[in-house]
């Protein structure tokens, strides 16, 4: 069964008035229900309310649940008694039972059902005309259709809200974080969605889908998407998707944020963020950002900048913010020139904190240069040959070298890689050498052999070089 509530008031038009009955009116309009002879006629024109009541019924292959449309008299229609009605339509098979809660039997008229020749389904109209109506009194309408009854409930269902995130790139090449809010399992379909940044409204621009019916259920789902900059994300700001569902009187939320584990000094993380392409090539005002996250306190904190070439740097005032989890995030911004950036100038951010045993340092990454050398001709008389991969000029020191043979990973015990070493006594970059022994027979079969290098300074985070025996050699 399903229900609809209609409030009655003497001398008022009831429900939600719809001017111009349109395709859902009847009695000489498009639906064309003819009242039976000898029975009272419905009021002159009826209109459909904008939101049909959900049926919460379960159709089968040979049955279809009814849909309810509360009806109201149209603009200017005069009635001698308060009147309310409901169109019950689209059901199969017959019959349905209509009950008006709180009404006397003499105040209720249920018109006989007729069958729509186009769809083969039935429809009828149930009318209530109280002899004496108390203003504001409510009458509950219940329609039972035994062949398709699944759950007798017409109460609103609040939404469930979940926020997920993923890294993406904007049209300018700046790294962004996409936030997606999934709003599911609610009815009726109207919801209000907004995004908050640390509890503040109006800071994000979002796109959202219209609520869509869930397959096999009487509920709806929707999504909302927005993008935030990597700077705001790494600062640990909290992004909230807030959904207001007026029908159920609920406000539901879910949150997303970049976070570390329990705060402690050895979990402080330092980032140096490069200039955006817009600032670098369009505005010609590039800026570097040093971001320290997960600071356990703001006491005795110092952030400084340095560079390899002579000259000082003038950073902006330190931006220090407390996060929801009690940690602090510090951001230091410094202006540089496009020429310095293009020339490969190295800038270093240093953080001093009372809980750190030694300062933390972070610089702009330098990608490695990779060269792969085939076996030396003097080796060709031996049964085992040596492939050598030289990786140099990279910063920071973390690097990974992996060998592949015939597109398959080579086990680590089959090659040797030196620890990272400074490129020179005064150098700030590093190098490693990796060598792998291969059987002469494998080399002569043509390989190929690949040296793959992973480093954060590389645009794709990895690069590779390939070598194989040339024909005739």
TrEMBL record:
* Family matches, as InterPro entries: Ig-like_dom (IPR007110), Ig-like_dom_sf (IPR036179), Ig-like_fold (IPR013783), Ig/MHC_CS (IPR003006), Ig_C1-set (IPR003597), Immune_Resp_Modulators (IPR050380)
- DNA-binding as a keyword of this entry, yes or no, is no
Alphabetized UniProt keyword annotations: Immunoglobulin domain
Q: Which residues form a coiled coil?
A: none
> What top-level branch of life does the organism fall under?
Eukaryota
Does the keyword Kinase feature in the UniProt annotation? no
Instruction: Mention any Pfam family matching this sequence.
Output: C1-set
Q: Which residues form the Ig-like domain?
A: 59-100, 159-252, 263-353, 368-468
Q: What is this protein called?
A: Ig-like domain-containing protein
Native species: Strix occidentalis caurina
Q: What is the lineage of its organism?
A: Eukaryota, Metazoa, Chordata, Craniata, Vertebrata
